[in-house]
Amino acid sequence: MSQPLIALIFMVGLIMGGPVAAQVGLDGLIGGTSAEEEPAPDAAASEPEADTAALDAAEAAFAAAVPDLSDWTDLAAAVERQLDDPGISDAALAEARDALFDWRQRLLGQTGINSGRISTVQSQIEALTPVAADATPSPAIAARLDSLGQELDRLRAPGLLAAEASARASGLISEIDGRLRQVGAERMWSRDNALFWPESIAEGVSAAQGSLAQAIRRYQLRIAGVGEDQFLANLPIGIVALLAALGLLIRSPRLLLRAQTKVEQSHARGRAVWAFLLSGLQIGLPVAGMSLLFLALRQFGVLPSGDTTVTSAVYAAGVLVIVARWLNVQLFPKGEFNGPLGYTADVRRKIRRTGMALGTAVAVLLIMAATLEDDNASALARAVVTFPVLVLASLLLWMLGALLRRAPTAETGEESSGRFRHALGLIYMGVAGVTPILALSGYTQAARGVFAPSVMTLAILGGFIVLQQLITRIYAPDDSQDGGSLVPFLVGAVLVVLLLPVTALVWGASVTDLLEIWTQFLAGFRIGETVVSPTDFLTFAAVFAVGYLLTRFIQRSLKNSVLPRTNLDLGGQNAVVSGLGYVGITLAALIAITLAGIDLSSLAIVAGALSVGIGFGLQTIVQNFVSGIILLIERPIGEGDMIEVNGQVGFVRDISVRSTRIETFDRTDVIIPNADLVSGQVTNWTRGNLVGRLILPVGVAYGSDIEQVRDILRAVGNNHPLVIADPEPQALFVGFGASSLDFELRVILRDVNWKMIVTDEMNGEINAKLAAAGIEIPFPQQDIWLRQPKSSGTESGQSEPAPQSRPSEPEAMLTSDDFEADGDADPDAGQGA
Fold first, then answer.
1. Is the bond preceding residue 253 a cis peptide, omega within 30 degrees?
2. pTM of the predicted model, to two decimals?
3. CA distance 682 to 677
4. Among residues 148, 354, 752, 821, which is most buried (max CB within 10 A)?
5. Interatomic CA distance for residues 421 and 404, integer angstroms
6. Rounded distance, CA 490 to CA 71, Å?
């Protein structure tokens, strides 16, 4: 819970340097000179009257723009005197702060005086300034430049005076804020008498008795003051309002809870939204019942007609109890649903009871404090009277922290609920333990300042969890873990940003403090010589988003409506669309940077250093980037082409600036760097057209009729529908193979993408027709001769001759009948065809 507060405090500390920086930045500008052109020291010293006259003219122009400028001067001087007074009250400082805040908003609106005219004069000066740095303008041009420079100084001076006045206001506001924070801290840690002293207890008991007696007497007098006629006249309205209030307070929460449970258990579309609306009515209708109850009591004369401190506190206490009940039911529901936190049913029941009791105790504390304050009881008396209820509330908070810390979850059943819940439970157990100790020790304000904001922060956290659960259920209606959607996370981040100011208000910040932080945030903060403003980022984001969406719209229109009606092929159309996308996004970024006023000149040195790194470390990436641009412009390949590169054959599916994605026939994607496509060898089967040649090798047995084979092959080629007639298919006798006569059927296909299908169909038809014609398609054959050396030769030491081989049948077809009994093979026995 402390992280949002730490971030808020850090932002405040970061922004507080804004006024000081603004004041320092104006020191050299008020004297009538621009930031770009500093006058020479001798010129400034030789013409003091001219500078004084220019300053007087600037002040006159500023006073004309702000007619009641004297009121501002008087207010600033009066606030400075108040800050020098150590006994000034907090209320006076707060009033002065509000006045300063209003004046600063007016002064900030005057900082853009003469902005249009200033832009025109600057353009004139840029037009007359020589391009070359060492060039000397002519005397006439130099005189004109000097006149325009003086005019520019005169136009800038009123705006600079307004900026100086707003900086003064910001400085005074910062001083007041610091003074108020110091007083608040001193009051927070001021120590009264310890509560355990007998005189403190006696004073508290006496104050409680006096407040109770005075409250009873007040209500008796109020009831007695209501006449009989007036009572009877108000009786019908009072009875109707009372009955309606009782119905809304007692019956409506149960009925709405039942309806919400039925909706959540149903499978209706949008049930998460309807369930949340029903849960919201569980707050709205009881609060309306509270209003009707107060109306009825006013009609009966029990409550005064106007609001008092006590009645406002009672109403706020009632709303607090209603909200506490709603949060406990939503976070720890009854029944089988485990709720957003996932605790078991027994744990949820204990937490509901403890949370409701804690909310009721805080409501009682609120009513008691308001009653005692209305009776002007002393701080010590209020502390003594509220101490027992404070101890009870601290005990309930301790029990709640212990349950959050160690309670078993429904999913695991273990006493471990995560680090965040463990830490949260420890924090609130610590708050519950420290609060009574501080109150007993006399630090009553510190005890209240720790306990009440802690409980309210816990309620804010519960509300955030309920809203986040709603968004999650909308995007995951079947209670599935929708990890692909980013919307719940973004909505959660927005909710955190919106709840930060609410949390700050709970912890003692005022609305004016938040407005001050927001004003300083919009004004930006200075980093070196650059002023970083959120408005610049918002302008950049808005302009770039518009440019990006416009580029995508034009791309979509070209791709779907314009380019299909042209003569460009698919690859050319995709190249035009991709190139337009890169150009459009680049122009959108440049226009957004220009309109946002972001100065990129300070990045020149960094860009120079990055260029060296790009030249060495990112050489491959730059090479692929340039190659991608070449592919898009030159278009040697396009989307839909069938290419072969690095042994991979597939269809081009996407060409980006770094790589190209091809889809192979195995339906796998292969990412190929663009540099390989530009510098390597690439076969594009479909570049220009889809016509391609197919070669089918065919081997027939020796002795086959060559002309008959040719006729069969030509007939197969002519009969296929994908084979074009001109040029006609060719059946070529290409050579004598080791085991066959080798032929080739060469055809031209209308669509080479069907090459594998055509190969399959033609091979099947060729095999069938050759078999029908009695023409054999041989397999590889060899003749194997095995010889045994004669015994005489062996005995005489003659070496065994090496086996000879020639084409014959496979070894599996040799049998013992192929050899002679003496081991000599018949030379003609194993010869094949």
1. no
2. 0.61
3. 6
4. 354
5. 6
6. 47
